């Protein structure tokens, strides 16, 4: 039995246009980004002389949808491109770039037309700040959307009945660099103590993928006259809003608290293991995610990788992670020791289609977590 390849589809309410795509997530490999491609099926009997367009957009939103300050909406389109699909401006063969499109065109017939977009190098990846349970309205997010619609020209108001909106994700992949071993060292000098306390913090590698445990090695040489106790190690997510505000969110996503101690004149070397998972942080407000909280395939946001000559402001939000060691020194309120930066990124997904693969069509909507009520805003967070 030949393997089956899932193709996602979404149909407009009046059945005029239907969009078929082989995937919903598109990977930024640092040196190139997966192109967005698919096929549109049109009911030409309903068109009545109108044209069919496809739009790819990247939008940064900050605050509620109705939020308006002195006539300025907290929303910016970072990227918008629109292409006419029908009537065709080029032959289908010139617009067909992938084997998936070829198979879909063959299977769906003469009323099927291909579309193809490439991401520019300066766009951020999908990020959304997790709203709190009492928050209403729009969350802060960088969102990508594919929209298919029909009208007499692309600038007129779009009829929602004859349009399809699909929220896609652009996710970050960073290959592992085994040569980089993150290490941080610092020295504390205490009042009335002749000798200092020396701390060394290290990780086995720089890049960790979602779901992967993070082993942390802590080395403490306590030559001071203070006793050290209650050592804790944590992974902190740092999110900087770089458009419209200078807000900064620092949230601990994994933490191990211990009663480990290092008396004066002794040393300690110990390995700790941290598990930064969204499953352990679902009720935390202000965490940066790579999707919507109610979907099964959502993770903590990957670290932002800003490419050379790209303005940080264009990214909307920047996410990074760092490992922090904290401890209490006798006779003082405590010590917080600087940490080691580390990357958290997506594992590389595999999408391929062989000649013998059969296609299975599924609805575009993502799988919901158990207990989450299905809503009408499933694939269009802009309408939430």
UniProtKB/TrEMBL annotation:
GO terms for molecular function: G protein-coupled receptor binding. Pfam families: Arrestin_C, Arrestin_N. One of its GO terms (cellular component) is photoreceptor inner segment. GO terms for biological process: G protein-coupled receptor internalization; nervous system development; signal transduction. Residues 193-342 form the Arrestin C-terminal-like domain. PANTHER family: ARRESTIN (PTHR11792), S-ARRESTIN (PTHR11792:SF15). Belongs to the arrestin family. This is S-arrestin. It comes from Dicentrarchus labrax (European seabass). The lineage of its organism: Eukaryota, Metazoa, Chordata, Craniata, Vertebrata.
